[in-house]
């Protein structure tokens, strides 16, 4: 069984229905180009964000993606997809335990809404993976998808600059206007539907803005930025022309400012890992001169930061752990909860009893960080442990481990970038939740690896067929 045909999901259609679907495809093809749901989601993301649809556009565009998949005679899935399918089943079963209360958690703190939103997000990223993987190179070339991801990286850099220099930017979106008053006033819903440039947080001992646009939280911004900068470099520098390279260089230079002001240590470590990975690739490939240039540029950036006010921000962040105690409390609570339900977990997050900052719990003016910590909200691993147990977490990460192993020989620029995109979440699993955009980006990277593999296998089969035909012709001439 080849990668191109592994795990068939849907086959065939009745002749009459197939003819109707073909007519619809011809009509749709004249109105909208192939791959339009994916391209429209990414290209117009700043617009979706301003409309209040930043989170929900993934759900909306998943509908035409799914319809396109269902119209195809056969839906292909990547090798190892059975692990992911089993994980989806595992998360669904977890809903049976929503009303139960693990030890040291607040009774009734597991909301069905959060569970349902996570289930939808897992399904949405699954649809995106299958949709991107089933599009042909003619419908959506790899190069175009890479450039689209690079564009989203530029948008994220621009949002970071907006959050740094205009942190007070906030507008009431059209979606927020039409929501019921009670729902629109909900703090979590406002985070999703109200475009804001920054989160104002007391990290350095005083209130300071941390950029987040066009994403929901500053941690989401940092997570997404580190993944998207990979594709900005590959799509707009490695594969780009002169103008695109200039845009890439300017974006990377300007990105240093919001990266520092985000106070996001996880992002800093992630970018350091990216630089080390690239340096190792250059050294392994014998590109010593390129490695020297990269080291020189990195040194210049470091000197520039040290000689600017940015260095004081970095020092202040390193001297103020801020959320470390709260994270530790929530992480240990997730482990304890998983130990009580090893295989299936508890279906969703919970609020912990007590707080790492105050015995009295409860937020106050003197202790804004006090309050019940949300167990499972401080990293994808902790979310999986409390929601789906050790078995669910194992299924989730095994899916990506097997993909990294399967495609380990892909040495193309896209292949290397995709593997790095799959590696970073193993660092971030202790720090950030991967839903929705980070996991969406990771799934597209996996789709690129899968598409590369299918293309390589197809080319190998054609080459083998050509060689066999040549041997046959030579044999006939000899006779």
Give structural notes.
The chain has 479 residues and is mostly helical. It has a domain at 141-320. Helix content is 66%, strand content 3%. It contains 19 helices and four strands. Strands 1-2 form a two-stranded antiparallel ribbon. Residues 1-8 and 357-361 have low confidence and may be disordered.
Instruction: List how many beta strands DSSP finds.
Output: 4
Strand order of the largest sheet: 1-2
Secondary-structure-based class equals: mainly alpha
Count of individual helical segments: 19
**Unreliable stretches, pLDDT < 50, 5 or more residues?**
1-8, 357-361
Overall spatial form: globular
Mean pLDDT: 86
Distance between the termini: 37 Å
Radius of gyration: 24 Å
Write the H/E string, N to C. Answer: HHHHHHHHHHEEHHHHHHEEHHH
Fraction of residues in β-strands: under 5%
Fraction of residues in helix: 55-70%
What topology emerges from the helices and strands here?
Elements: H1 15-31, H2 36-43, H3 45-50, H4 57-71, H5 81-94, H6 112-134, H7 142-165, H8 174-178, H9 181-184, H10 187-193, E1 198-202, E2 207-211, H11 218-238, H12 242-261, H13 265-284, H14 288-306, H15 310-319, H16 324-340, E3 350-351, E4 374-375, H17 380-406, H18 413-428, H19 437-478
Antiparallel strand pairs: 1-2, 3-4
Name some characteristics of this structure.
two-stranded antiparallel ribbon, two-stranded antiparallel sheet, mainly alpha, globular, 479 residues, 19 helices
Summarize the structure.
The protein is built from 19 helices and four strands. It has 479 residues and is mostly helical.
